[in-house]
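Please predict the structure of the following assembly.
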Amino acid sequence: MSRTSPESRFRLGRCRTGLGLFARVPLRAGVRLIEYTGERISGEEADRRGGRYLFHVDATHAIDATGREYLARYINHACRPNCEARTVGRRVFIYAKRDIAPGEEVTYHYGAVYFRVFIKPMGCRCATCLRRAERVAISPSAAQARLVPSPRAPRAAGSGRRAAPVGAGKVR
Ligand SMILES: [Zn+2]
């Protein structure tokens, strides 16, 4: 199994957020599944480029997986993921946290900084967060709470949000 290529283990497929990576075969807990490959660039260059596919390996090294040929970039974020990203030297690998069945989407947590900058403003659409949102929507107490007029949220002066603050990648 260790010699199997990533292409034979995974397939690209449609999911809630666009494209995702799905297991083709059973994947065992603890196994190194795929490398987060991409263009290796300096931390400074990463800050200049910005973008959603940057993985900050350490303070001075990053991987830019903007190119569509990099398979691991298609792995989506989840708040309760079945995989995790680990840095080994200056490389990043995705490991299975638990056994994964064929057909399951493969996910890992993108890290607190990435979550705050890119995911939270839009609302997380991982399975856990969607289930939570559904529960809130059908709970009577939550429905009542919505009927209470809410005080107007104070608006910060010049509240324009920068899409990508400098240095914000998939920092863990
Ligand atoms: Zn989530």
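Residues 38 and 65 are 4 Å apart (CA to CA). DSSP finds five helices and ten strands in the chain.
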